[in-house]
């Protein structure tokens, strides 16, 4: 199973992998997933921040997770605590962005 396929599974039921499907827990899960990939000499998220930036959301000190938050909530200038429905929206946006990034990378983006 590819990283894209696995992360699509996680995106469909994030609470099954993170105990509660909050944006913060999903981000933590993805950081852990990335660290495991790096231990194998690979990367899943390398370039994700640049990919998001190319679509109009500038990089910031928080990296890809802050950018994805700004895509989900363009009227907010910083990462904030989220209400349950906002968490669900932010998680959905994050996985939509992630799938787009991984699809583009499969097609040779960033190579």
Describe the protein.
This protein is mainly alpha-helical and 111 residues long. The protein has one domain (3-106). The chain contains six helices and no strands. Helix 4 (48-54) runs parallel beside helix 5 (64-72) and helix 5 (64-72) crosses helix 6. It is globular. The protein starts with a helix and ends in a 5-residue tail after the last helix.
Kindly list the characteristics that best describe this protein.
111 residues, mainly alpha, 6 helices, 0% strand, globular
Radius of gyration: 13 Å
- Helix/strand structural class: mainly alpha
Order of helices and strands: HHHHHH
First-last Cα distance: 21 Å
Strand content: under 5%
Helical fraction equals 55-70%
Count of discrete domains: 1
Average pLDDT confidence is: 92
Biggest beta sheet attributes: none
Q: What count of helical segments does DSSP give?
A: 6
Tell me the number of strands.
Answer: 0
Shape: globular
Which stretches are poorly predicted, pLDDT < 50 over at least 5 residues? none
């Amino acid at each position: 199973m590819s990283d894209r396929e696995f992360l699509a599974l996680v995106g469909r039921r994030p609470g099954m992998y993170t105990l509660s499907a909050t944006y913060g827990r999903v981000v933590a899960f993805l950081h852990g997933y990335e660290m495991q990939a790096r231990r194998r000499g690979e990367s899943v998220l390398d370039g994700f921040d640049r990919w998001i930036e190319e679509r109009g959301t500038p990089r910031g000190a928080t990296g890809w997770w802050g950018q994805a938050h700004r895509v989900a909530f363009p009227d907010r200038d910083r990462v904030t605590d989220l209400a349950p429905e906002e968490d669900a929206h932010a998680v959905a946006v994050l996985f939509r962005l992630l799938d787009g990034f991984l699809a583009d990378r499969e097609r040779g983006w960033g190579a």
